[in-house]
Specification:
Double Stranded RNA Binding Domain, Rossmann fold, six-stranded mixed β-sheet, single chain, 34% helix, alpha/beta, 2 domains
């Protein structure tokens, strides 16, 4: 089975070829402006950030943290207010913190108006001593780190809800934990992960960097090895979809040959096209898992997860 869409790959190759021939000015490429996402998906909800009661902070520090999170989200153009008395239709940013040895890790959840979790993320660990004596500057730094993640998750939730069957809205959009990308040279690990988050968001998923509340997970393995021909390397990308309990559901596999060293620095449009082509396959694997009948004693023995092969777009033509 192939999830490769020929027309889109051809368009991507044409773009890459053009970039190789002439250096055209593209002042807004990759920098659409701070309001671009908000304008693309106008938010229909208001967030409320109550002072956290489970964040291992004293009363005044908890209020300061709620205000810091609110200010950081407002800087992202998110409609939000810090209040201890949210309105009935407000969505909540629930803030907690967990002690992990010599560190404390802040956690954030988006709750809808019915207080159902919709997405989750977490911040970097903070030394226990610093958290116990948290000042305004520390709380603002933690809030500023979390705000872009929360904004992206909120936009994904909003887009997914608009594209979801009304009968399925109560359960919320499917949540997927992006475990990570490994093995890619250059900036491939970061670029592939970021582009796939964007593409899966368009497919109706909420992609988060923490496993909390996520029914599915995505691990990406990249391999770049000599192709047996001088000056050529073989690239293989495996997008591995699993359940939250670790059981593998399926894989989307992309393979192609590229000029040696082509991916040692920036992946650019190659990451975008690879993620765009693989996202449909990931969605199909999850859809098949959702539709699969429950197992029973008379069910046939399980078979190995099927891999869907799709060609990785080549950046330039080989000679």
């Amino acid at each position: 089975m192939s999830f490769c869409r020929t027309r889109r790959i051809a368009a991507g190759l044409a773009l890459l070829a053009l970039g190789a021939c002439v250096d055209l000015p593209q002042p807004y490429r990759g920098r659409p402006g701070s309001r671009a996402e908000v304008l693309a998906i106008p938010l229909a909800v208001r967030l409320a950030v109550p002072p956290p009661e489970q964040a291992l902070l004293a009363g005044s520090a908890a209020r300061d943290f709620a205000e810091a999170v609110t200010a950081a989200l407002q800087a992202q153009d998110v409609p939000v207010i810090a209040t201890a008395a949210p309105l009935p239709l407000d969505w909540l940013v629930e803030v907690t913190a967990e002690s992990q040895g010599q560190a404390v890790r802040p956690r954030f959840r988006l709750l809808d108006a019915d207080r159902r979790p919709q997405a989750a993320t977490e911040g970097s660990p903070v030394p226990v001593r610093d958290w116990a004596n948290a000042d305004r500057a520390l709380l603002e730094r933690v809030a500023q780190e979390a705000a872009p993640k929360l904004t992206q998750l909120l936009l994904q939730v909003e887009a997914a809800r608009k594209s979801t069957d009304p009968a399925s809205l109560a359960a919320g959009p499917p949540r997927l934990h992006m475990v990570g990308v490994k093995g890619a040279p250059g900036d491939g690990n970061t670029a592939l992960g970021a582009r796939m988050k964007d593409q899966l968001g368009k497919q109706g998923f909420v992609v988060q960097d923490t496993p909390e509340g996520a029914a599915y997970a995505l691990q990406v393995d990249v391999s770049v090895v000599p192709a047996g021909v001088p000056g050529v390397e073989r690239v293989e990308i495996q997008w591995i979809v699993s359940r939250r309990d670790g059981e593998e559901l399926g894989r989307v596999v992309q393979m192609n040959e590229v000029p040696a060293g082509r991916l040692n620095r920036l992946w650019g449009d190659i990451a975008h096209i690879a993620a765009e082509e693989a996202a449909g396959g990931v969605k199909t694997v999850v859809a098949n898992a959702i539709q699969a009948p429950p197992s029973n004693l008379e069910a046939p023995p399980p078979v190995a997860p099927q891999a869907a092969n799709t060609a990785l777009p080549a950046p330039t033509a080989l000679r």
